[in-house]
Amino acid sequence: MRISVVSLIGTGCAAALLLPVAGPGPTALAADAADAVRRTDPGIPASTAPRTTTLTLDPPASRAAGSGAATRGLTPRHTAGYSLLGVSWDDPAAALDGSVQVRTRSVDPAGQGGWSDWRSLVADDEDRPDTGSAELTGPRARGATAPLWVGPSDGVEVRATGRGALPAGLRVELVDPGTDGPGVAATPPPQPRALPAADHGAPRPGIVTRAGWGADESLREPDFGYTGAVREVFVHHTDTGNDYGCADSPKLIRAIYQYHVRSNGWRDVGYNFLVDKCGTVYEGRAGGVDRPVLGAHTLGFNTDSAGVAALGSFVSTQPPKAQLDGIAAIAAWKLGLTGRDARATTTLLSANDGSRYPKGRRHTFDAISGHRDAFNTECPGNALFTHLPDIRTQAAHLQGRQ
Fold first, then answer.
1. pTM score, two decimals?
2. Residue 4 CB burial class (10 angstroms; 0-12, 13-18, ≥19)
3. In the chain, which stretches have pLDDT less than 70?
4. Does the bond joining 380 to the residue before it have cis omega, within 30 degrees of 0?
5. What is the dihedral sign for C-alpha 289, 292, 294, 300?
6. Which residue among 106, 135, 374, 385 is least crowded, i.e. fewest CB within 10 A of its CB?
């Protein structure tokens, strides 16, 4: 595994909303280095900082007798405001063999609330770092479900039911994404596109930077991790639900970032890029969009790959065309930086026995694959997965290969 880590000191300059569009070369690389330095500065903070409230799950009083460790929960209660939630536990290596369901109380503009139906959280969240990595074995690392976006809420009820013993330290994580500060925007303004220097490169799409979605750079680890050249793009869905408007995308991404760092204990948000239902592409993990940043998205195959996550849940819901176009555009550009054909295949070495392929085994993937191709998971959902052949074709066309 080829990983390098650098630490840069901020200059106090505010980062621009959009990244530069110049192709690779001495000037572009210098600009990328300067951009990485600016990235350590908070840039444009949210007006109200994100906040996580945690509540420990207890055995429900009415079912505690004789239930042992098979059930945990929270009775309905008023809480601090939040918009995204999940459930975490102490040991990141422990599996939650069972189900977790939540009910939430929404807040409308008039200040009235209404309780939702029971909704299930995805208990087996394998969008994560490789087993044994410092990111997953650090003192803050925890196991967790996938998070769920529920919109402004001020109440919660939880029930967790195990087939056997449940993991120790179960708690619900309630994430308030804060409010948008000056300069935070859900959609990048139009910009010129330029081809990179590599043969069969694709146009660089508009990318909303971390400053553009209001990332608090003091939250993440200050240094950056890199691998070898990106030869593979894994497509994911965040599985956070589809009840968000595109204007809410920065809030949703801030909440995922907060959950990945504060609740999961990771160094940064796990995905390299995120794409909302309007097709807007957002920078994910810090370190430079042109660089091979080591992400935490595909257990066993985070090296030499990039993770692109569609904001939403696409098990049965069809992704909008704009979102598919955005995924194709960022995948074409990222692979094109090193001349990789979006229709080609790539052979990668598994770093984990927990993946679909044992540690040390090589497997050949399509250059644009779904998370399920590398791990036994639903991700990126059946509805999105069926579009991957079209995404490869479109990405190749953007690279000038058709």
1. 0.83
2. exposed
3. 1-47, 60-69, 109-112, 124-126, 182-183, 185-198
4. yes
5. positive
6. 106
Contact between 58 and 230 under an 8 Å Cβ cutoff? The reply is no
Structure tokens at 126: 């394998």
What does the pLDDT look like over 94-124, one tens digit per residue? 889 999 999 999 987 666 679 999 999 988 6
Q: Rounded to 5 degrees, what angle do the CA atoms 192, 198, 203 make?
A: 25
Helix (H) or strand (E) holding 278: none
Domain 4-45+181-398 sits in which CATH superfamily?
A: Peptidoglycan recognition protein-like (3.40.80.10)
Q: What is the CA radius of gyration of the chain?
A: 21
Find residue 283's DSSP bridge partners.
273
Strand pairing report for 171-176 and 51-56: antiparallel
**8 A C-beta contact, residue 192 and residue 21:** yes
What CA–CA distance (Å, rounded) separates 171 from 142? 11
* 373 conformational bin, left if phi > 0, alpha if psi -120 to 50, beta if neither: alpha
Which residue(s) pair with 365 in the sheet? 346
CB atoms within 10 A of CB 227: 20
Q: Which residue intervals of 259-320 are DSSP H helices?
A: none
Q: Tokens 């807040």 correspond to what residue?
A: 107
Domain ranges across the chain: 4-45+181-398, 51-176
Cα–Cα distance measured from residue 5 to residue 302, given in angstroms and rounded to the nearest whole number: 15
DSSP code of 59?
-
- Kindly give the pairing relationship between strand 98-107 and strand 148-162: antiparallel
